[in-house]
Design goal:
Shape: elongated
Strand order of the largest sheet: 1-2
Strand content: 5-15%
Distance between the termini: 54 Å
Oligomer: single chain
Order of helices and strands: HEEHHHHH
Number of helices: 6
Number of domains: 2
Length: 150
């Protein structure tokens, strides 16, 4: 059961051959449908043996996001999220102190995001005190980097 579940959910990873870009791997839609059919059949048979059995819940993997920024902006596709993700990957991940911060953030970011996600006042505070200044700094550093490379 869990092998089918894990296979369907896919794998989130960072591609070392593409600037450590966060990516996901998933089955083709046809193969996923076949695996889901097998999972459903197995679940039906297990429920016949044990009426309290509940099959595992599928949770498709996504490329890692900037937790707090995504919670603040309400979407993983917001330009601030993209800007700060790029900053993390191109600047922070290349320095020891940046990697330490990323490690800390991966442990604590989901808790912070959950704290602000459903609280409009905290989301606004995060936007004005954290997200906008961080995005502005990231944009400035990126422009300097691009200007310095030419």
């Amino acid at each position: 059961m869990h092998l089918c579940k894990d296979t369907i959910e896919g794998v989130a990873f960072r591609d070392p051959f593409d600037n450590n870009t966060p990516k996901t791997w998933h089955l083709s839609p046809q193969y996923e449908a076949q695996i889901k059919a097998k999972l459903d059949l197995a679940s039906t048979k297990l429920r016949a043996l044990d009426s309290t059995y509940s099959p595992p819940v599928l949770d498709k993997q996504k490329a890692d996001a900037c937790f707090v920024v995504t919670a603040t902006m309400g979407s993983p596709d917001h330009p601030y999220v993209s800007t700060l993700r790029l900053f993390r990957d191109q600047e922070l991940a290349t320095r020891p102190i940046g990697r330490s911060f990323i490690e800390w953030y991966r442990k604590n970011g989901p808790k912070l995001a959950a704290l602000i996600a459903d609280r409009p006042i905290l989301r606004r505070a995060a936007l004005h005190l954290l997200v906008r200044p961080a995005a502005a700094l990231a944009t400035m550093v990126q422009r300097e980097r691009e200007g310095g490379d030419s």
